[in-house]
Amino acid sequence: MAAAPASAAGPLLAVPPLLLLAATFFYPLALILHRSLAGAGGLSLAHYAVILGSALFRSALVNTVAIAAAASAGCLLLGLVLALLIAFVPFPGVRLLARVIDTFIALPTFLVALSFTFIYGSAGLLNASLMSVFHLGLPPLDFLYSRWGVILAEITVYTPFVLRPLLASFSLIEAAQIEIASSLGAGAWRIIRQVILPAALPALLAGGSLCLLLTTNEFGIVLFIGAKGVTTLPLLIYDKAIQEFDYTAACVIAVVNVGLSLGLYSLYRFALARVGGAGAGLV
User: Fold this and answer.
1) Which CATH number belongs to the domain containing residue 194 in this structure?
2) pLDDT of 187 strictly over 50
3) Which pLDDT tens digit goes with each residue over 191-228?
């Protein structure tokens, strides 16, 4: 008898969180969309035609996609190698190594970019040492202030998002499978290719999708490294809104960026549904 009132009140309990979501997310998003479509005679796509047709926007879009794809590929490769070492090649300090790698998730992204500047920058530790040892007049390493510097920093930050689901996936592989394959004459590379990788594929898919989503929207690393000629969509939104006070252009780019992010998030959720328990370690 008591279950009926509780069941009737169920829809009402959803009203407060829906109102909060509408106030904090949907209403601001609606304002951005309206501002991007606002024209002299009402709603118009004229602003989209101007912004999307500009060389600056196309360059930012290409940079965003290229950096996100390269950084995600690097995260997948490095995460897979580290996961294989940690899971199947026991050595002293392996647990400590896994914990240290995990701490990068908690670090602000700009902190990693700042540390890279101290190490690899023109006046950083590595360049200063090389200039002193080899008596060079100019810093020999200048990759940091390019697209490659941004990619390297993003790989450092986001590799744990691939490593964690991979380790969870590897923990489900029975040792007997590897022992049987080894007893039948399979080498290490064949075991990895035919036994481990098929089991790890869902985790790779989920981790790679999440890295792609995060690197697409990365702002702090690009801003702090200050790579020459490297402008991404988030940085372009910042430039238009904060430095040029062109809020309409910023809103247009923001709508495009949100659309791109939602598409990647849908890909991530699809991958996460496939990975199941192994992907649960991500959230």
Assistant:
1) 1.10.3720.10
2) yes
3) 878 788 888 888 888 888 889 999 999 998 998 888 88
Residue 135 resides in a domain = no
**pTM assigned to the model:** 0.83
pLDDT at 5: 56
Does residue 80 or residue 277 have the better pLDDT?
80
In a domain, 38, yes or no: no
- Could you give the CA distance from residue 115 to residue 133 in angstroms, rounded to a whole number? 22
Other beta carbons within 10 angstroms of residue 127's beta carbon come to 20
Burial of 214 (0-12, 13-18, 19+ CB in 10 A): buried
User: Which pLDDT tens digit goes with each residue over 121-165?
Assistant: 888 889 889 898 888 888 888 888 889 999 999 999 999 999 988
Domain membership of residue 255 as a residue range:
47-107+149-221+231-282
Domain assignment of residue 238, yes or no:
yes
Number of domains in the chain: 1
Angle at 65 between CA 149 and CA 238, to 5 degrees: 75
Asked whether residue 66 is assigned to any structural domain, the reply reads yes
> DSSP class of residue 243?
I
